[in-house]
Amino acid sequence: MQIIRGHYLKMLIDIHVHSDNSSCSVMPASEIVARARSLGLDGVCITDHDTTAVLSQIQEGFQPDGLLVLVGMEYSTDEGDFLVYGDVESLVPGMDGRALLTSVIETGGAVVAAHPFRGWRPSDTGLFQSYPPSAIEVVNGRNTEAEDAQALELACHLALAHVSGSDAHRFDELGRFPTRFTCPISDRVDLVNALRQGMCRPGVLRSAALASAS
Question: What CATH code is carried by the domain that includes residue 176?
Answer without folding.
Answer: 3.20.20.140
